[in-house]
Each structure stands twice: as structure tokens, then as C-alpha cells.
Amino acid sequence: MLRCGGIPVDFDIVQYSENEDRNSTLRNAILSVRRNGVAMKGNIENPNATIREISHNVILRNELDLYANVIECKSYPGVHSKHKNVDMVIVRMNTEGEYNMLEHESLRGMIESLRIITRKNSERVALFCFEYSRKYGRKKITSVHNSKLMSLADGLFLETTKNIAKNYPDIEHNDMNINECCAKLISEPSTFDVLLMPNLYGNIISHIVCGLMRGVGLISGKNFGDNAAVFETGARHAGWELAGKNIANPCSMLNASVDMLEYLGLYYHAYVIHRAIDKTINKDHIHTQDLGGKATSVDVVENIMKYVHKATEHVTWPYPTLEELEDIIKQE
Fold this sequence. Notes:
By secondary structure, the chain is an alpha/beta fold. The chain is built from ten helices and ten strands. It has helices spanning 22-36, 56-63, 119-135, 153-165, 178-187, 199-213, 251-263, 267-283, 297-312, 322-331, and strands at residues 38-40, 68-74, 87-93, 103-107, 110-113, 140-145, 172-177, 194-197, 220-224, 229-233. Strands 1-10-9-2-3-8-6-7 form an eight-stranded mixed sheet, with helices on both faces. Helix 5 (178-187) runs parallel beside helix 6 (199-213), helix 7 (251-263) packs antiparallel against helix 8 (267-283) and helix 8 (267-283) packs across helix 9. The radius of gyration is 20 Å and the shape is globular. 37% of the residues are buried. It holds the Pfam family Iso_dh. This is Isopropylmalate dehydrogenase-like domain-containing protein. InterPro entries: IsoPropMal-DH-like_dom (IPR024084). One of its GO terms (cellular component) is mitochondrion. Keywords: Tricarboxylic acid cycle.
């Protein structure tokens, strides 16, 4: 796709193989991201992992200290779903909570699983969330918690986010219990703007929203640390059952490429691919099976590439600036 649009991005490819040591491949991937500062990532779970094997996805996020996960959820008018006017952002803690994978068998038949919440990382993700919301014009942040049941861990997270909120008088802040939040997401998702939460709640809520929007194959995810950013599918679904069948929806990964290009400052190219996806889904209604259509993965990609090629075939360096792009959008 990027080659089709003549987009000036080169890749250092690290590929998992059944014939190679997965731990060695993971180390190479982490070194590559540290060297380049940015990456696009597929799901690197091991389908044959043992019950005690730590997820490589989790190791990569922790090693790179990608403490904030962001999922932007916006309805596609051309996709039939229960709710049409969804436009929210989910920000979740990415390196603490239940997904630290700190479990052990203290006695035979007794498993202890540790849920770690620290003030430092709660402050980091809360500060990131408020800065992100201000940058993109979001007006309201809802902190999601279960402080009545887990008064210490979730209580610390909630207290921290409330303290950070005091420094952002231009952004409304409230909080909501996880149970109430899930119920309201199903009945009135359009009432939310930005949701901020610990790790496990973020995993649950992102899947709920993706399901409501039929967006598992559409929505991308962004992972940010102080020194690196990694872009991937929003639901982080491995999709082993779809492999090799030419039926998977490629749009979530293509949207991840849009996010990556924006992060790199290639705003025009990001816009071109975004518009191509939008036209393919909402105008041409070329939908894969997950969206109720009959198109194959190749059908979707080829249609998007058609728009990308048309929009970029006469574009040369220097590429349109962000201000020039805004003028282009207004003219459309």
C-alpha cells in the first residue's frame, strides 16, 4: 500500500517463523523498535504457547515501556451497526495491572495473580490522556474504575487521575464504575468522549465497543512510550482461524498505517489512505464477511490501492504541509 502511494517510508522487517527461535526473534524486534523509534506490529502470539509462557505482545510492550494504549472508535456510516454516532477514544494503562503476568502457584492448587497499580504510571497515563485530549479537541474524560471493590488499587488510580484533572480546567472530568460504564456503552455509547482506565478494563471495553460498531476488522490501536510508538490492530485479535482464507478485513491494519504516517508527520499520505478506506467502506460498500459483505481481503486492498494511486500519482516532494492539507480537505 505504501509503495503504491510512493510514500517515503522504509521498513526493517522482523518476521516470526516456525523454524526460528521465537525468543530470539522477539529480541530482534525489540532492538529494531528501539533503533527506529516506531513500528507497525501484527499479533505475535504463539498458537502453541504453554500455559506458563508469557505473551510476547506483553513482553514487547513492557520492554519498550509503551505505557499508553489509544483506540479511536468512530462509526462508519456505510457499516450497518446498532449505534451510528459513536465517536470516542479509549485510553488504557498498557504496562501495569493484571497484564504484568505476575502469577505463581504458592501451594499446589492455589494460584496468586498480582495486580500492580503505581502512582507513577497512573500519573503518566493520566497526563498522556489529558494532553492527547487537549491536542485533538476532546472535551470530556471519564475515568473508569471499581474503587468500591478494589479501594486501594483502583482508589489510587482514581485519586491520581482526579489530581491530574485539576490542571486541565478546559476539559471536563468525571468518573464511572466499570459495571455502569459497560451497561451505558451498550445502551448509549454516543454519550462518551474519552475513556481513561487501567489495563484489564481497557481490554474489555475496547472489545465491547468494537463489537457494537462491528469494528474488530476496522479499528486500529496505538501504543505510546517516551521513546517509541507501535501501531497495530485495535482489538489485538490473533485471527488464527482466518489465516490463509482471503477473508480477513485488512482495514484495521491499514488504519494503523494511517496512524503511523500521522505520527511521522506524513499528513498528506495519511489522509490519502484514510480517504481511500473511507470511500471503499462507505461509498463503494466493498465489505468483507465480518461487515456482512462478500468481498475478499484482496478485493478491499485493490480498491483502496486504486484510490491511493490516483491521489498520489502526480504528487511530488515537497509534500503538502498540514496547513495545506486542511485547505485541500475544505475544498473537497
